[in-house]
Known about the structure:
138 residues; mainly alpha; 6 helices
Amino acid sequence: MPAVEVYGAQPPIELIRLFLDRKGLYERGTWEWKDVEDCTVISCAAPPSGGRAVITPRLSRRFNMFCLPEASQGTLSTIFSSIMKGFLGTGFSDKVKNLEEAAVSSTIEIYIKIQEDLRPTPSKFHYLFNLRDVSKVI
């Protein structure tokens, strides 16, 4: 997102607000108003950090918000162990099947350590890790 302006606005967010408030947008070249009907807007956001700005109250008032806690290490182990057991159950030897628990626990341990130590910052914004990265390893 672009940086917050002096008055607290962000042009893309202001366009979203215009759409939500007035149920339409202006045509880009002719400035003719276009109504939009039967449209539902669903959005999601991550906490502000690493170059992400806080969402303005002028926009967030238009949405119902709920927050999800991060999954615990036990929950992650259960999820990825189930996936790994299903995959390894398709014809792998017992030696390989016995490595499932160690592979899952070590991958999740590394993921949690990376989440703690390699936080995104404006100069290192590419330090964004999520569960998709864990699933690629497992």
